[in-house]
């Protein structure tokens, strides 16, 4: 994630901010420029970005900001869609007649916008399904039963471009309980979005493509019965010795899940590294067993063509993050080990993402 600052007063901003806490300016994320900007209202209800070199560019607030205060993205003046590029991907939103659903939806949208930011940075195709049958859509649904569990009526998952998220995942207490029940070292809303997007982009970028032979070599045969594989995983557990071949226990359940988990970790890595770079910090690429913190000025993981360069910076950075977390009494920020086969899978994801055909 980029580091943003207010064009009016220089205050550092978070990606989610809607107003500057120092000068009070209204803020909006400009998806056409991938920037959070301080905005100045025009007489006709539109907005201009302060300090913009494109004075003719004007914006209006996303309708989900105007009506629900749920979004901080803006829409270019001449775009006919009332929703921003992130919100227009929604197929179903929660029942807002249930008071707590507004808060849960807001949390989901914050993390979805982080996913969409990464997809835009990578230049990947991201079209609403209602505009293109091959596009992407989201359903945010709630169980009708009072208790949330993995076998409830609403299952988080992907099918033919439609990603379904059970809104109970946005409840921290529920999510933590499920994390412990499922023996997962890591379970976050953003992790769900990134994982499910991996299923979508497997369909979009890998299925039936020139990448299938390499996919089979590294991930296995995806034609294995998916339902049986998941049932076996949930009843018998992960494959023996899974850490030597997979990024997570769940990745060992089926090649599709292995791909989706690996895809999610690729997004974890490049976005976290961009954040570190934006703060002027990296951990120097490992030389032997030594690593040191130092400033960096030009390492953009989203733009890197060489995956080895990303890996050389990521491994010591992850070690540093985990060490910092432990110093604060928290669990590891990145509780995973990248075994050599996992690195090769990540390398394939990188090659597919960087293939010019991926953005066509």
Can you characterise this structure?
There is one protein chain. The chain is globular. A hairpin with a 2-residue loop joins strand 10 and strand 11 (162-166). With 360 residues, it is of the alpha+beta class. 38% of the residues lie in helices and 12% in strands. It has a 4-stranded mixed beta sheet, with helices on one face. A 3-stranded antiparallel beta sheet has the order 3-4-5, with no helix packed on it. It has a two-stranded antiparallel ribbon with strand order 1-2. The chain has helices spanning 63-68, 99-122, 172-181, 189-206, 212-219, 226-236, 255-278, 307-327, 340-354, and strands spanning 4-5, 12-13, 27-30, 35-41, 47-49, 59-61, 74-76, 90-92, 137-141, 157-159, 162-166, 282-283, 293-294.
Q: If you compute it from the alpha carbons, what radius of gyration comes out, rounded to the nearest whole angstrom?
A: 21 Å
What proportion strand? Answer: 5-15%
The unreliable regions are none
Treating each run of at least 4 consecutive H or I residues as one helix, how many helices? Answer: 9
Strands of the largest sheet, in order across it? Answer: 8-9-11-10
Broad structural category: alpha+beta
> How many extended strands?
13
Whole-Å distance between the termini? Answer: 24 Å
Largest sheet: 4 strands, mixed
- In quaternary terms, these chains amount to single chain
Q: Which whole number gives the mean pLDDT?
A: 89
SSE layout and pairings?
Elements: E1 4-5, E2 12-13, E3 27-30, E4 35-41, E5 47-49, E6 59-61, H1 63-68, E7 74-76, E8 90-92, H2 99-122, E9 137-141, E10 157-159, E11 162-166, H3 172-181, H4 189-206, H5 212-219, H6 226-236, H7 255-278, E12 282-283, E13 293-294, H8 307-327, H9 340-354
Parallel strand pairs: 8-9, 9-11
Antiparallel strand pairs: 1-2, 3-4, 4-5, 6-7, 10-11, 12-13
Helix pairs in contact: 2-4, 4-7, 5-9, 7-9
